[in-house]
Design brief:
Strand order of the largest sheet of chain A: 2-1-3-4
Strand content of chain A: 5-15%
Oligomer: homodimer
CATH topology of the largest domain in chain A: Glutathione S-transferase Yfyf (Class Pi), Chain A, domain 2
Radius of gyration of chain A: 17 Å
Number of domains of chain A: 2
Order of helices and strands of chain A: EHEHEEHHHHHHH
Shape of chain A: globular
Structural class of chain A: alpha+beta
Largest interface: A-B, 28 and 28 residues
Largest sheet of chain A: 4 strands, mixed
Number of helices of chain A: 9
């Protein structure tokens, strides 16, 4: 059995955040496939593991951890890298992790979900999430102007949190050339030794019948 | 000049989180009114203070802090209370603060915003946020079954984060009797010495022309 077990599935950008961290660190880990699209995360058994009913979930040394931001924080400490080196960095990492959870990932992930997985979504709903996602992309693009990394002069877990969904531009319906600082930052992350695309790192892709229908 | 200056406005539940913390701690603080509804948080001057363009913003001892979760973390340390007492509590506080930012506050605040401040919102949009908010309320209600406080055996900043919007049931369009553990937990917070309703703690209410139109 591996040191770290990550309950995850390929289409989950929130799972990708800790999976990427584990891959970049060369940790001894294994994915445990959650059949999200068959309702596995909504069962009483899964709720008993995590009342929030969310993926990912990390098991390590008897601990069960949920929320990608908590898992990243835990891994930074356990693996001794990509974490803060002082209190100011710690709060800057927290600030961008919260912004990511509240807006950047939240709106981006929902936009992608509506585009790719929900048939016949009301166009007004998709449009609202697109508007909000674009505003969040603009904030990060502005922040990355003249910066290589989000929260320090080196990559940190804040970068990996924000990177959860950025490698699916077709599914989101964005061309990152319109946000050139995000494009360049995503390429810097992808150049780190050990990087893999989410679909190459976690199980469950392709989904039967999956396609990219786009927006109406 | 007070020790702490909080840029805020009465209708902002995200501002209420640190305002409540400051009030409960009896800190020497003053609000600085942000005329959000006149676009004050979207000006270049405000963006220079906070690239995220968000309220609240805390100024203290030369620091400028944004993101309510970061401000709460900072205040717990500076004021020496309502914070974690060990690493497990720290991660449990972080877990619920992230859930709050991602889902509980996010969907609740947007639902209220659409109901109270946006004329002629498409009913499909409001319905989507209501469905998501209700799912988040259910998660917290389940978690609070048999618990007095969210993340420890005493109130912490995780409680104050999640409480940001709960004292506006009419504006949200909820009767907390349908979520009795949330109702009782909100009453426990309201019984803490120094507690005030957001409209009694921050400037700018009532807004001219403000009402509660409800949902279509």
């Amino acid at each position: 059995m591996a040191d770290y077990t990550l309950h995850c599935f390929a289409q989950s950008g929130n799972s990708y955040k800790p999976a990427l961290m584990l891959a970049l660190c060369g940790a001894d880990w294994e994915p445990r496939f959650v059949e999200f699209f068959k309702g596995a995360s909504r069962t009483p058994e899964y709720r008993a593991l995590n009342v929030m009913g969310e993926v990912p979930l990390l098991e390590h040394a008897g601990h069960k951890l949920s929320q990608s931001g908590v898992i990243l924080d835990y891994l930074a400490e356990a693996l001794g890298t990509y974490g803060p080196s002082n209190d100011i960095e710690r709060r800057e990492i927290l600030r961008w992790t919260l912004f990511d959870n509240h807006k950047f990932t939240s709106y981006t992930a929902t936009l992608r979900y509506l585009r790719c997985y929900v048939p016949n979504t009301d166009p007004a709903v998709t449009a609202m999430f697109r508007t909000r996602a674009e505003a969040a992309w603009k904030v990060l693009d502005d922040h990355l102007t003249g910066r290589e990394w989000v929260a320090a002069r080196r990559p940190t877990i804040a970068d990996f949190s924000l990177a959860g969904y950025v490698y699916w531009p077709d599914e989101i319906g964005v061309d990152w050339k319109d946000y050139p600082h995000i494009r360049d930052w995503a390429a810097r992350i992808a150049a780190l030794p050990g990087w893999k695309h989410p679909y190459d790192l976690m199980p469950g892709h392709p989904l039967a019948g999956w396609n990219i229908p786009g927006e109406k």
